[in-house]
Amino acid sequence: YRAADDDDDETRSRKAAFAGDVKRAFDALTAKETYDMEPNDAAALALKLTADMAEWPFNARAFYDAANAGKDVTAMDEVFRAFRSADALNSSFVARKDAAAASSSALTDRERARRKPLDDLRIDFDALDRFYDAVRTMFGSALDGALYDLIHSIRERLELDASGLSRSRGKTNWERLGLSLTRLILMVMRYLSTCDDLDHVLEDMLSCCYELAATLDPPGIRCLTAQLRGLDRGRFEALAQTTQQFVTVRVYERASAEDGHDDGGTLEHAVRFLAMLYDANAASVDDDDDDDDEADLRLGLELELDAAADATAAAWDWTRGVHLPHAYFYNDAVNDEAFFDVKDDYRRWKNPEWRASKFAFSFCAVAPFAFDPATKARILTLESRMLMTSEFEEAMMRSVFSGSRDSPFLVVRVRRDTLVQDVLAQISSKRERDLRKPLKVAFVGEQGVDEGGVAKEFFQLFVRRVFDPSFGMFAHDDETRTFWFAPEADDLGLEDVEFELIGIVIGLAIYNEHILDFRFPMTIYRKLLGQTPSMRDLREVNPWRHQGFAKLLKARTAEEVDAFGLTFTATRIVFGDEVVVDLIENGRDVPVTIENRSAYVKAYVEWFFVDAIQYPFDAFKRGFHRLCGGPVIHFFRPEELEQLVCGCAHFDFNALEAATRYEDGYAKDDPTMRMFWRVVHAMTETQKRRLLFFATGSDRAPIDGLGALPFVISKNGTEDHRLPTAHTCFNHLLLPEYKDEGTLRARLTQAIENAEGFGLQ
After folding, report:
1. Is 682 a member of any domain?
2. Is 679 helix (H, G, I), strand (E, B) or coil?
3. For helices 39-50 and 9-30, what crossing angle results, to 10°?
4. Where would I find the HECT domain in this sequence (predicted)?
């Protein structure tokens, strides 16, 4: 503080004294033998200390010296002083900026400005962990009380009401405490996540931390989520595991309780914190900051460039997040049908006034990510059946009271040789309410009665036809083994309604619980869920192009970039001819340079995933969302949506054997059944798929695996010349009692090789 010319002697003396106090505080804070703080942080804290706006941070050196000298009281006095004061603890264990600054040297000014609040709140977790370990080793659980007092004093300062979610009027204590509350929450939760067992005191502290996190406003939530994302994997996983265990125990407790729902909000607070962890783990980092050119694109590629050296190998792992697999957030308790009523949770979500629940909130609303794919599929089925029942009942009422001939079913009659045309003619004219009726399929001239099996075969044949490259709608890539929208679609005169029909039929399959046999790249499912494609999508769909772009962006000189000889164009092959497309106006006259290469890559990615397929994909998506446009479909991640459409790719026939029921004279230990399963387990993958198709009408496993398939085997006579038969609509295999394993193998193989068709064809 510099004295002004018009200051009197007393004012000058007071300012000089203040400046001296600031200097002494600064010197103490920066001294290596005491606090060893970074100068900028020390300067800011010195001013606050001198103005009585803060408290001195924890003095780790004094604590360790006293502890090592056997001065336990002195050591714990320092602990209690700092850890019972939010202000003191907030000034403690501050990580130095050196490492962070070195790693962020390539960031833009905008990126640095966006990260500054996080830099100001950074925690030296290594030092914090060493301290926690030392206290436990030397003093046991002595720190528990100090942290308990701290966290509850903060709660009282925030003047929370019983629900923990409202604040007093005027300038709140949370606003006065600022974003530093997120720092305190993390420091206390780090201690709790490293405890071997949580007694009732520690559980109460953990519950209070969840409650404090639930009070955060949107900027606070974003700040805490960013801090969680910045944790290393080990600390992040420890915190996630602690929270999952807390949620699991509370769900089981509430499900087993005989009284009403939990009004305390304890479980809801923990689930909302689990949602922050899930968001922090999500792979789509900083989606709202993608308008920077080179920097953001390069940052987005950092995780991929090393693997891009062999880009034709395994595709991007869509099942992983920043730290943990997304499946890590599935919660055992809410996926346990014996304890958790997902139907009740769904009803509470759709109707907040629903009072039959034991829970004060809905997982569907707060944490749908906690449901595994099988539970999500059950919720979607629940929604579908409710709509089906509604349409069925309305059709019956119209028939009774108005004489209407409106069928309660969606009836589709098709011929095998004109299947797609027949479906197009019948489905395209249907109203929305008709599409939501239960589906019944009939093949003209055949005897099959559709109890589910005929519809299964219909979907198989439809998919086989429209995805045949000769049909002109989709092209198959032998390298990636996926289908993509054919570039010739425009020239073949295909109309939007045909692509819309495919979307409707896939929606009908989901709606009526049938699985299909084709493979889209994950990008299609991401686009169906409203997610924006990126460079990593290109790696799966067009790996050699992805590899080329990775090399382009890694080039360090203008000469290296010029050597690519690129312009702002893209090419595609239509009927064997190469067609050049401008990515920008007059793009073929604009060379790609080291300055504009990121703009070129962005333009190409947008063209490839948006412009090049816009009309067929938009029509396809429109058809899909006619039946699957509700909010439940957005519970699914892209890889889960693929499982919903196409089933599970993994065939566990051991699980199928364990789940199989036996009727009409057969039993698990029957000699014929033992022969049957020996034959099945010895089959090739292709033969097993054919067996599934023969017995169930589909060669794919349900989303929750073959163990969930209601498979039945019945005895069907003793004649060796008879072939096995099946009621596909009931997943029911009728197997004669063959005398030896060779005969069984021969007859079963003959049957599954000729499995298509119902009655006369």
Report:
1. yes
2. helix
3. 140
4. 431-761
Question: Where residue 721 sits, what CATH number does that domain have?
Answer: 3.30.2410.10
List, for residues 32-89, the tens digit of each pLDDT value: 877 878 788 788 888 888 888 778 888 888 889 898 898 988 988 888 888 887 878 8
Please pick, among 209, 364, 646, 729, the residue that the annotation labels catalytic.
729
Who's near 166: CB < 8 A, 6+ residues apart? 160
Quote the number of domains for the chain: 1
Q: Which of 94, 282, 117 is nearest to 187 (CA)?
A: 94
Structure tokens at 580: 């050049």
The pair of structure tokens assigned to 35 is: 């606090």
CA distance 62 to 49: 19
Tell me, yes or no, whether 732 lies in a domain.
Answer: yes
Look at phi and psi of residue 150 and say left if phi exceeds 0, alpha if psi is from -120 to 50, else beta: alpha
Q: Express each pLDDT in 487-527 by its tens digit.
A: 876 655 556 888 999 999 999 999 888 888 889 999 999 99
SS3 661: strand
Percent of all residues in the chain with a pLDDT value above 70, rounded to a whole number: 81
pLDDT of residue 553: 92
Token pair listed for 105:
């040297």
Helix, coil or strand: residue 475:
strand
d(CA 268, CA 214): 9
How many residues are there in the chain?
Answer: 761
Flag whether 592 is in a domain.
no
Distance of CA 620 to the CA centre of its chain: 24
CA distance 447 to 134: 79
Which residues are registered as beta bridge partners of 567?
Answer: 591
Distances (CA, A) of 353 to 260, 269, 349: 14, 20, 9
Which domain does 669 fall in, by range?
A: 653-752
- Cβ partners under 8 Å of residue 689, min gap 6: 651, 699
Catalytic status, residue 195: no
Radius of gyration over every alpha carbon of the chain, rounded to an integer in angstroms: 33
